[in-house]
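A reminder from the course coordinator: this example appears on the midterm review sheet, so study it carefully.

Given structure:
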């Protein structure tokens, strides 16, 4: 049997559209989606409608949860918050460990969150780029193995999308995957190997970014 692992990046974020948001935000590194990002998330959901996805795993940052929720609403699935898919916890970008809403607070906002799910892989601040790639790659391998009879969707960030894909197909993903906002990667298992079928598809979007930013 084959298995499909879908890997998506979150949609556009408010601090990309309005950089001044960062100056007064309570959780500066946990930006919500922008207005057009909400539209992108719905377009991603429509793209995945009809696919045989059994589980959704999302980074616990607000923008990834919002993106996952749009998909979960269309597919009628719960959301598992997986820290292994988190943003690159880069001390150059982030002068302190990023603060996020705790899971119970997120679950109040997004009832589809499965509060009983236990994350498989931890993310520790600070980390190097290579450590992030290893962490997100291990996450993808772990979830693909644990749910090997089912197709799954992973929703992360630009860098962790690349890392998760590398965990399955190897170094080719480092140069082949273009993880722009709300893009979609498709990896298919044909034992004993994984094949990269979509490398960052954005055909479902009517508005795309011109320069890919991995944050």
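Designed residues:
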């Amino acid at each position: 049997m084959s298995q499909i692992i879908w890997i998506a990046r979150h949609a556009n974020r408010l601090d990309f559209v309005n950089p001044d948001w960062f100056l007064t935000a309570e959780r500066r590194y946990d930006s919500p989606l922008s207005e057009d990002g909400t539209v992108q998330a719905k377009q991603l959901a429509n793209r995945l409608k009809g696919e045989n996805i059994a589980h959704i795993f999302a980074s616990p940052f607000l923008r990834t949860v919002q993106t996952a929720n749009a998909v979960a609403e269309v597919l009628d699935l719960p959301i598992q918050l997986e820290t292994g898919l988190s943003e690159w916890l880069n001390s150059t970008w982030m002068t302190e460990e990023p603060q996020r809403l705790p899971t119970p607070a997120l679950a109040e906002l997004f009832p589809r969150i499965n509060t009983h799910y236990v994350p498989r892989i931890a993310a520790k601040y600070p980390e190097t780029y290579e450590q992030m790639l290893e962490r997100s790659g291990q996450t993808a391998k772990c979830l693909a193995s644990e749910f090997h009879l089912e197709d799954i969707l992973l929703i992360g960030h630009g860098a962790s999308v690349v890392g998760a894909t590398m965990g399955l197909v190897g170094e080719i993903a480092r140069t082949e995957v273009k993880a722009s906002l709300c893009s979609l990667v498709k990896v298919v298992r044909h034992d004993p190997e994984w094949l990269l079928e979509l490398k960052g598809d954005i055909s479902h979007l009517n508005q795309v970014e011109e320069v890919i930013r991995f944050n």
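The first strand starts at residue 3 and ends at 9. Residues 129-146 form the longest helix (18 residues).
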